[in-house]
Amino acid sequence: xxxxxxxxxxxxxxxxxxxxxxxxxxxxxxxxxxxxxxxxxxxxxxxxxxxxxxxxxxxxxxxxxxxxxxxxx
Length: 73
Known about the structure:
The protein is an all-alpha fold. Helix content is 84%, strand content 0%. The chain contains four helices and no strands. Helix 1 packs across helix 3.
């Protein structure tokens, strides 16, 4: 699998996580909890995947710098 797949999959998961946090902050509504149960094994897997996706996307900072330097040459 190439890194573009991980980039898009991670970005999708992080967006889902951000929307969920927004719903919690504005409306006290946890969408993952609502759909999959209060800390059921499936909701814990989803939270873990969102967290791992966020950690993976930290590498985007370094890759953005590399992309910018190659486009300016």
